[in-house]
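User: Fold this one for me? It's Polynucleotide 5'-hydroxyl-kinase GRC3.
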Amino acid sequence: MTTESKEWLLDEENELRIEIDFEAKVKLRLVTGTAEVFGTELAQNIDYEFSGRKLAVFTWHGCKLILQGQCSVEYIANETPMISYLNTHLALEQRRVLASQKNIQGPRVLIVGPNDVGKTSLSKMLLSYTLRQSRQPIYVDLDCSEGSITMPGCLTATPLTEMIDVEEGFGSSATSAPTAGSAVMPLVYYYGSPSPKDNVKLYNILVSRLAQSVGRRLEEDEAARTSGIIIDTNGLIDSTGYDIIAHCIKSFSVDVIIVLGHERLYSDMVRLHQKPGLSVVKLAKSGGVVERDSAFRRHTQNQKIKEYFYGTSKSELAPYSTMVNYHDVEILRVGDGNLAPTWALPIGEERLTSETQLVKVDPGDHLLHSVLAVSNAEKPPGTTAPDGLTTEKEMIGNNLAGFVYVSEIHDARKKMTVLSPCPGRIPKKVWWLGSLKWAEE
Ligand SMILES: Nc1ncnc2c1ncn2[C@@H]1O[C@H](COP(=O)(O)OP(=O)(O)OP(=O)(O)O)[C@@H](O)[C@H]1O
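Assistant: Here's what I get for Polynucleotide 5'-hydroxyl-kinase GRC3.
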């Protein structure tokens, strides 16, 4: 790493915007004053290390920062929408105070907008500000392309109790070595693809399941109930995107929609959804939000997968290698199977579509480098016929125990070697195959 260091003096309400390549490492230190990264405050005189990130260091009251290392972009901006973001938080906080007094549900906020307008960054800020008020909000991540919490291809809900980590984002706060019964364990459903468009029906089923689970959590957990939920979405805003948004609003009983950086979407949301008890708010996109090309996104996804098995430079993990017999596991994927004809279904049964049909996958060379999701489901489909349909729906709606990575295939011996974060035999037998592949470097 280059030792070149540079001092930055920021006036109040300014932000230092930096972009760091994946190959570079940059250290950031707050010397005087106060500053925050997407809502999380920096401690003074501590080195924070970043690689492959685009971020903003914002100060409300002015500060002095030192950057050590090579950034690809670095500049100070004095025009930001941070005041409007803070005001939005304060309005939501008023609702939380009311919710605490009356013991009712706090705000259920949905953040929508096109790609690269800062939805995830705004979610982090609103969550951080809420956590700073000693509340315990739930973060729902419906953006399956990114995998802020665990892996790409997942839909997750995470009750947050600790501040979001400056260097690792949700990666650390939500999943670092949770103790038994820890409140920071995310609830994860596997969708298996980076775009909701690939299988809208499956995506909506999983959103409904996630919403039911979150609803149960809110009933039991008073702190989470009054703190409310923040839902981050993908950037789909065409007609399919509108249907998905409508489904999310219904499933999570959303009462605040924040539309980020898109006038037409805002006016459509007002027209389609504004009704008593549901507010639609428009916020401006920050000039600092960076458009990420597909290569950058792919790199981020790979990094996320790698971190799952090997940890980060701050907390390294050593994955375990296990040999698995083909016949010991049931590998399934959702969709694209051959359908039973409608007349073959029992009278009154809902017809399964090809989008939600379970298909058994025969293990083989094609699985090499796949990331498979280990389901908490116990029984393979078809074993409890005659009600096979219900079984399939239950199977799809099961949450996940974790992930494995297929590192070697020994087809002649009908075995495969998989990496997993835990030692020993993998107790769960139903594994989902999605489109996630990763070539270990
Ligand atoms: N003010 C800012 N200054 C510098 N970088 C920023 C700023 N706000 C956000 N970014 C960066 O811009 C990128 C895009 O932001 P973000 O992920 O929040 O957008 P998004 O709308 O959630 O994107 P998508 O839905 O397409 O995944 C991220 O790398 C983020 O760290």
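One thing worth pointing out: Residues 82-102 form the longest helix (21 residues).
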